[in-house]
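User: Here's a chain of 93 residues. Predict its fold as tokens.
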Amino acid sequence: MKEKYFKYSLIGLIALLGWLIMSGLLSFVNGLLAAFTVYVLVNGQMTYLTEKGIPLLAVAAFTVYVLVNGQMTYLTEKGIPLLAVLQGVVAIV
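Assistant: Prediction complete.
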């Protein structure tokens, strides 16, 4: 009888901890799905660039430059001051 109690208590504890962890991670699901989507979309190009021999750091720096420049252009067109945009970029980095 004691062994069954221990077994079910352990299963209940594992289920409770699993539920707590999953409920805490629920807010990160959108980010994980987005990261997986970007990985699937860019995996072929990354393999091509790596096999071609283009330095990875240069590609990464260019990608960050394009993303930040595009975001700053979009935000300044929407009427958000450039200083606020730059402060946001510095806060991210």
